[in-house]
Specification:
The chain is of the alpha/beta class and 507 residues long. The protein has two domains: 2-23 and 54-108 and 134-333, Ribokinase (UDP-N-acetylmuramoyl-L-alanine:D-glutamate ligase); 343-476, HUPs (Rossmann fold). The chain is built from 18 helices and 18 strands. It has helices at 2-9, 56-66, 80-91, 140-153, 172-184, 212-219, 226-240, 279-292, 297-311, 322-331, 335-339, 343-355, 372-382, 395-402, 411-419, 436-442, 461-466, 482-506; strands at 15-20, 22-35, 42-55, 69-76, 95-101, 108-117, 124-132, 159-163, 188-192, 207-208, 244-248, 254-258, 263-266, 360-365, 387-393, 426-430, 446-450, 470-474. Strands 5-4-1-8-9-10-11-12-13 form a nine-stranded mixed sheet, with helices on both faces. It has a five-stranded parallel sheet with strand order 16-15-14-17-18, sandwiched between helices. α1 runs antiparallel to α10 (322-331), α4 (140-153) packs parallel to α5 and α8 (279-292) runs antiparallel to α9. The protein is elongated and about 100 Å long. The model has no long low-confidence stretch (mean pLDDT 89).
């Protein structure tokens, strides 16, 4: 685990070419409260829409988030969706020289209708997908232009990734051209294949990453156990001259097979699956990022497994950051440490909770010498919503607020103790004297403070109430405070000291 953690921590900014079917994903978000009278279908009350790169664009988005320098290669239509996708890529600083216009086809658009099932008390569900596409093969002239681009650009890259979704770009001849240039310039080439009975066009790639269904269809082997995985891996590597085959096996993790005959299952951590969209893209992205940074496919496999696990916990094809992967690795060393988040990582996590309509509760404090009053306070706060974020004053902040003798317990120790509590979902440390900026970053649905703040005024109240959030005052446990505990300790110490002095004088 330490090796894997170090690899993720030291990932470089490799130059990665992504060749594949470029798409634009449109997400339409809303609530479902009733069924149509016209037909037995749900009615979505639309609240928002957003556009994201899809298909091979999802791989590009993942890699850019992880810090890679990406060269995009593919085709799109001369239309508004194509221009939208191109502008997204340019905003991401992606090299788009290898994207060519094909006037014979529209830019592929996949529109997903995402509804929150209000009456069923469930989270966001994908209710319908609408595809706009033409999937005929690209022309010989366009393939020639793409080939010329590859010949000039492959030498500049550290690794080449191919995302084949069977949309007309990756003909057998073009795939052969890709392999030829990768071998010519000694570049690793990894392909995420399409669903097909015939994989002969992938001959010569370094590795491929089919899922269970794809591997079963291509090999004719029903995958049910370790033996069938080995037989499928052997058939793919031997028939296609691959060095590696990585078969993703959903809840069971992934299977890494080397042409030498060595195969192993890399298990995944059990988790709630919200949406499998983008999981395969994430696996390909991580292999590209890790191998492109100079590590082996063996090194990349467990990291890809972790990232795919995080991905299925998100709604839609959404990038996974390096920080999220490191947090997952840390949480494997202990649940408590995995709750402690930097604010940048926390914001991304909370955005995912919002998509599930989770109610976010926030409170803050010094929590110096944890006591029963704190425990009851945090229990109360947690009951106000679905998850509790605790903002913890840093050592510097506590010292400024409480005086030079405080805190008694360091911020690292205080954070670990809070994270060990069942009612606390996340802990984030802040350095300011007030939590105002942190509250603006978290944007909680419910802000909780002790009722002793009633007259003093709750910091962040106006902001939270400005977007419909609410402030709740928690009851206090009488006599439970850090100050009282310290006073009792000092009194007890003085009593013991007095007894010792009395005994000493009597002797």
């Amino acid at each position: 685990m330490d090796k894997t953690f170090n690899i993720v921590s030291n990932l470089k900014s490799p130059r990665i070419m992504v060749i594949g079917d470029l798409m634009l994903d449109k997400y339409v978000w809303g609530e479902v409260r009733r069924i149509s009278q016209e037909a037995p279908i749900p009615i979505i009350n639309v609240s928002s829409e957003d556009m994201r790169p899809g298909g091979a664009g999802s791989v590009i988005n993942n890699l850019q988030t992880l810090g890679a320098n990406v060269f995009a290669c593919g085709v799109m239509g001369d239309d508004v969706h194509g221009h939208t996708l191109l502008n997204i890529f340019k905003g991401m600083k992606v090299d788009t020289t290898g994207i060519f216009i094909d006037k014979s086809r529209p830019t592929i658009l996949k529109m997903r209708l995402m509804g929150h099932l209000q009456t069923a008390g469930k989270g966001v569900q994908q209710l319908l997908r609408v595809d706009y596409e033409k999937t005929h093969a690209i022309s010989a002239d366009l393939e020639s232009q793409l080939s010329s681009y590859l010949n000039k650009t492959v030498p500049l890259c550290d690794i080449v990734l191919v995302s084949d979704m069977n949309k007309g770009l990756l003909s057998a001849s073009f795939l052969k051209t890709i392999v030829t240039f990768c071998k010519k310039y000694n570049k690793i080439a990894i392909v995420d294949p399409k669903l097909s009975v015939d994989y002969s066009s992938y001959h010569g790639f370094t590795a491929m990453t089919p899922n269970r269904n794809e591997a079963e269809l291509a090999t004719g082997i029903k995958i049910t156990d370790n033996d069938s995985l080995n037989r499928a891996g052997n058939k793919l590597t031997s028939s296609l001259s691959l060095e590696y085959c990585v078969i993703t096996i959903d809840k069971d993790g992934m299977f890494l097979y080397h042409k030498s005959g060595q195969g192993r299952i890399i298990p995944t951590t059990p988790r709630t699956v919200f949406d499998v969209t983008g999981a395969g893209d994430m696996v390909l992205s991580i292999f590209g990022m890790v191998v492109g940074s100079g590590y082996s496919l063996e090194d990349a496999a467990p990291i890809a497994n972790i990232a795919a696990g995080i991905e299925v916990g998100k709604i839609g094809a959404t990038p996974v950051s390096k920080g999220e992967i490191l947090d997952e690795l840390m949480s494997g060393k202990g649940q408590a440490s995995g709750k402690i988040k930097d604010i940048e990582v926390l914001i991304g996590i909370l955005n995912e909770h919002r998509k599930k309509n989770d109610k976010i509760v926030f409170t803050n404090g010094c929590f110096d010498i944890l006591h029963v009053g704190h425990i009851e306070y945090l229990k109360f706060a947690r009951k106000q919503g679905d998850l509790l974020v605790v903002g913890l004053n840093s050592d510097h902040s506590v010292k400024s607020l409480k005086g030079p003798s405080r805190p008694f317990v360091s911020e690292a120790e205080r954070a670990k103790m809070l994270a060990a509590l069942e009612d606390v979902t996340y802990v984030t440390i802040f350095d300011d004297l007030t939590p105002e900026d942190l509250i603006k970053a978290v944007r909680p649905d419910i802000l909780v403070k002790g009722e002793d703040w009633k007259d003093a005024g709750v910091v962040g109240r106006e902001f939270v109430e400005s977007y419909g959030g609410k402030v709740v005052l928690a009851p206090l446990v009488e006599g439970a405070s850090t100050t009282n505990i310290v006073s009792r300790i000092i009194d007890r110490h003085n009593q013991i000291k007095h007894v010792k002095e009395t005994v000493s004088q009597a002797g």
